[in-house]
Amino acid sequence: MDVDEVLEPAASPLDVAVDREQEQQEDVLGREHGEPRTGSLGFEALSRGAAGVTFVDNDRSAVKVIRENASVLRCADACDIVQADAVGFISRNSGIFGLIFADPPYAFGRIAALPGLILASGLLAEGGYLIVEHRRGTGFAEDPPAVPAFTRTFGGTDVSFFQHTDDRSRSGA
Fold first, then answer.
1. From residue 54, how far is each of 39, 67, 110, 131, 134 by CA, in Å?
2. What is the C-alpha separation between 153 and 29, in angstroms, rounded?
3. What is the rounded distance in angstroms from the CA atom of residue 33 to the CA atom of residue 31?
4. Are strands 53-57 and 97-102 parallel, antiparallel or unpaired?
5. Of the candidates 81, 162, 173, 169, the residue with the CA atom closest to the CA atom of residue 114
6. Is 164 left (phi over 0), alpha (psi -120 to 50) or beta?
7. How far is residue 165's CA from residue 60's CA, in Å, rounded to a whole number?
8. What angle do CA 133, 71, 134 make, to 5 degrees?
9. Does 13 score more than 90 pLDDT?
10. Which of 72, 38, 39 has its CA nearest to residue 54?
11. Rounded CA gap, 142 and 140, in Å?
12. Cα angle: 14, vertex 17, 19; to 5 degrees
């Protein structure tokens, strides 16, 4: 897998002057807000041994870039690329995932409810992790309880980590 081969969306040219701190943040966050997604975190998971990755994005241009990158990286067989609204996907999907990374636009009106929806849906495997990127200081809905195990802050962005445990699933019932 050659990083130089990964396609970047036309709307976000690579900025070679990015300092190391910002580069580390982008590695964790996957993209800056407002730019089409590339699937970089999912492709990184595949390169580290994940059996498969499901990409869900409502943006047609992002889905196109992710498909092209999967082809260039020769891993399309391990990718399920879905153009759909995330909440609709959550309600219609019956798969079980060990890791879910949610990176909705900050303007998405249901960010506070998203962790609870995912945890209650049965999509996250027992012991699995849900990682949600959101605006700093976002509170999460308490029904069902969605309390992050921990949160890391990068400027005005928080990345909250949730773990599905048997105790948490019983407390939400």
1. 10, 12, 21, 15, 20
2. 11
3. 6
4. unpaired
5. 162
6. beta
7. 35
8. 5
9. no
10. 39
11. 6
12. 110
**Tokens linked to 80:** 């399920």
Query: Is pLDDT at 123 greater than 60 in this prediction?
Result: yes
Residue type, 24: Q
Q: Which two tokens stand for residue 27?
A: 């590695």
Q: How far apart are CA 29 and CA 135, in angstroms?
A: 12
- Helices 40-47, 60-72: inter-axial angle, 10-degree rounding: 30
CATH architecture of 95-173: 3-Layer(aba) Sandwich (3.40)
Which 3 state secondary structure label does DSSP give 31?
coil
Q: Tens digits of per-residue pLDDT, 16-58?
A: 223 333 343 444 334 444 455 788 889 999 999 999 999 999 8
φ, ψ (nearest 5 deg) of residue 17:
-90, 10
Where along the chain do the CATH 3.40.50.150 domains lie?
95-173
Distance separating alpha carbons of residues 142 and 132, to the nearest angstrom: 16
Give the CA count within 13 Å in the CB-facing half-sphere of 41: 20
pLDDT bracket for residue 140 (50, 70, 90): confident
